[in-house]
Amino acid sequence: MTPDIPDASSLDPTDWPAFRRLAHRMIDDVIDGMEAIRDRPAWQPVPKVVRQSFEEPLPRTARPLPEVYEQVLQTILPYPRGNVHPRYWGWVNGSGLPVAMLAEFLAAAMNSSVGAFETAPTMVEAQVLRWLKDMLDWPADSSAVLTSGCSMSNLIALTVARNARGDDVRRKGVAGSGRPTFYGSSETHSSIQKAIEILGLGAASFRRVPVDDERRIRVDVLAEMIAGDRAAGLKPVCVIGNAGTVLTGAVDPLDRVADFCAAEDLWFHVDGAFGALAWIVPGLKPLLAGLERADSLAFDLHKWMYLPYAVACVFVRDDAAHHAAFAMAPSYLSRLPAGPASYPVSFPDRSIELTRPFRALKVWMALQTHGLDAFAAAIARNVAQARRFAAGVARSPELELSATGPLNVVCFRFRPASAALTPEQEDDLNRNMLMQLQLSGEAVPSHGLVDGRFVLRIAITNHRTTDADLDLLLNRCGEIGRTLMAGASAGGDRRTA
Ligand SMILES: *Cc1c(COP(=O)(O)O)cnc(C)c1O
């Protein structure tokens, strides 16, 4: 023992009872916060002093854990994104289940990398994948893997499609594969284009197909585009169908796209980030007919399964094609006849990551604890809430329904019939109304452009939301909009403020 080398065990607690007491306090603080979530703002800005605290330099020496935790309590926990709050409906962010938070803690305690190894975590992921296939009526012999998000799931699926339709892409690269071309509606999520760029094919290899009045892909135009592209020497490879577009929740006619892909020998991928989960609600399933016929399906579990970040899934119908795209067999990862390295399933052979977290536990515990029917009920409730909110907007003399699909997304704006505003003034008014609402902490919708106009947008993937929460949004939009109008028509006159 050389005395000047610090004891490595100092990275563990030196006083376990004190560590345990602090850990219990953390649990109490977090659960107190969850119980009282309604009393907190849905979002609040990070104050300047707090922001500045994140500029402190790299710590070289130790500080007591209770002191570090105090800093977390003061500067970090109060400033979350807000999606745990019942009145957060921005972008597409799930609300997070308390039981899954505990699962994350347990998974971190195990600290198992879930690769090809005989462990309970690998078996739990295999079981969860079987459950998810069962849940979405996919064949038991299809391939699947959990991922960090639907962007990653889309990337994995499109890699398989590119390779399956290419010429020995893993060895030769994409140069010898003609000009592989992908198709999806103009409403397709940006992660699809990003995947195609990462695959080395260039954004121009993603062809955007126009949509109909309900923002669904025009299959007739798709057919014309593909015929034209073939004549021009391109190589159509894959069509992406949307089960719930991000902006309005539109669902492409998946059955018709599936028929078309089968007839034209094209890979059919479905991006079902949140919308795919509507499959588990009997009344909504018919909307998604054709989803079960895709060659690959990407969907999130951290959106409409309400699980904490980050967990998603991808299915690939052709198990061999999936493995052919990702399998690697270096000596140090080879299988042995017995022992930990004998496990027959290899998740790294289905994905980009080698070392992978134990994402499956939160899915497993949430499904075990609540049962699938509770998720179906929560999803059905969110859709009913969106329909009810859209009806409220349609009835309001001051609000206008800008766009809505059949699921949980509604786009709207403030537009009183009496006001004669230019389109630019209307956009400004709605932008200010949204920011004021968000800054108030009362509710967090997000925004987007529908037909070039600024709209407020809600996507309800929140199991805590009540009808009263959405009524509050409807009323506050009217009130804030009216106040802003009054301020504008008074030309900034302070007396009207
Ligand atoms: C959110 C979303 C994605 C990307 O998923 P991440 O989990 O954010 O990576 C892809 N497609 C659609 C339709 C989405 O809503």
From TrEMBL:
Keywords: Decarboxylase, Lyase, Pyridoxal phosphate. Its cofactor is pyridoxal 5'-phosphate. InterPro entries: Aromatic_deC, PyrdxlP-dep_de-COase, PyrdxlP-dep_Trfase, PyrdxlP-dep_Trfase_major, PyrdxlP-dep_Trfase_small. This is Pyridoxal-dependent decarboxylase. Pfam families: Pyridoxal_deC. PANTHER family: GROUP II PYRIDOXAL-5-PHOSPHATE DECARBOXYLASE (PTHR11999), MIP05841P (PTHR11999:SF70). The keyword Lyase applies. It comes from Tistrella arctica. Belongs to the group II decarboxylase family.
